[in-house]
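User: Hey, quick favor. My workstation is busy. Could you predict this chain's structure for me?
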Amino acid sequence: MITKLHIRNIGIIEDVELDLGNGLNVLTGETGAGKSLIIGSLGIICGGRFSKDMIRKGENNSFVEIAMYEENNENSIDGNIIVSREINSSGRNICKINGRMVTVNELKEFMESFIEIHGQNDNQNLLDAKEHQKYLDNYIGSNLKELKIKYQEYYEKYNNIKKALRENFGDDKEHQRKIDLLNYQLHEIEIANLKEGEEEELEAKQNLIANSEKIAKTLNEVDMSLGENAIDIISTSIRSLEKIEDIDEKYKTTTDSLKSVYYELQEIARDMSSYKEDIYFDEEEQKQIDDRLDLIYSLKRKYGNSIIEILNYGKEVKEELDKIANLEEYTNKLKIELNQVEKEMINIAKQMHNLREKYSLELSEKINKNLKDLEMKHAKINVKVEYIENEYFETGKDRITFFVCTNIGEDEKELIKIASGGEMSRIMLAIKTVLADTDNMPVLVFDEIDTGISGKAANSVAEKLNKISKKHQILCISHLPNIAATADYNYYISKQVIDERTLTDIKVLNEEETIKEIARISSGEINEITIKYASELRCKRLAS
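Assistant: No problem, here it is.
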């Protein structure tokens, strides 16, 4: 249940806090005082859409926070849950659950299990086919629940086997496609006959051929310079120094050093001649090298960044092909097991279908009885259960859809085709009345549920809200004395002008104030007669 609601800077609401009680909480008050803004704020904290126009004039952000108490909830701290959402004029959202920041989608998903809002524009659960199935299944109760548990055990096995088959290429077409692809890849790698270090060697040869003319010219220049100039000059110098090497030891040392240089130059000259002989240009060889490198680069793009990686990938492909060949027996076992699991699922699904078909008629009748009480005499709900042959759902093989006909002579339509928000709210009230003991939604919010009704229908709405509030916390905006008189807690919403700004104010009414408010909304005046009428209505509530 919601224990506290805090709203800041939404429309004419500047800063209000509202303590809520268990049971039926009814909000009444002046037109335009901000009652719908309070419901709208609950929609915002539930992850609903927010328009920047809703931010109070002159402010940069809006803020909504609720405190809830839910025992044995994994997200609670000693049963307490604090949820907040701040929206800035820039459009930035800050959502928190117990201080932990979450996205708007995460907030919405979290709040879906706590609060349902039903009003002119908020009946999303009633328009969701998955919720229709929940309504019917909750109504059926334990008999169906046991079957669903068995079915879901098989459904999990079914998905696990299907996954294993996909991973093991159990699908025949996929199996063959995979084998063909792997064989193609292995053949492409093997026929290339790659060798480690081959790429570097080919690139070196390619570089030599590409620069052969430049290398030959340079080597010729060096060879001529050494042979015709440097060696001859050094030889002449050596002969000259030999004439004086006996005179002083230093001349002898210099002569020996020069001879060493001479011999080294001769060796270099011989190398130059050898290099020249190695330089050649073969156009055919260049083409072969280019083609081979192109093949290596192509394989690298497909299978790895180096020849070693390509060869390793080839080994992996071969191992995978061997694995697939050995998987045939295992795959056949999986298929047999899948067939058996499907038989069990179908058997249980048909039992669930029979139960749903039986109870859908009963549920339809009870909802329709409640609709008559709510002055929707010609409205008729039809809960249809369709068995889907070729599909398995998590909850069976049924598609449950609520159909409705609101007027005599018209065809029934899916519930989502109804336009009237007031009708939708009363339909939801009728459904919730039937499901009061089985529905596990903690908080239900009804906005303007009494629009267009009075008299007997108003009494019926009040009775049904009172019944539902025994098992759920109810928040309801109302203009009817019958509903206000039934409330466990009454709140008066008013507006006042301070410093030329309109502000919303919320007051929790005591018993005397509650009777006066019931009297006010019953006739617009508070006098002895209306007070007496209000007291009588209130006594009926206390008596019940």
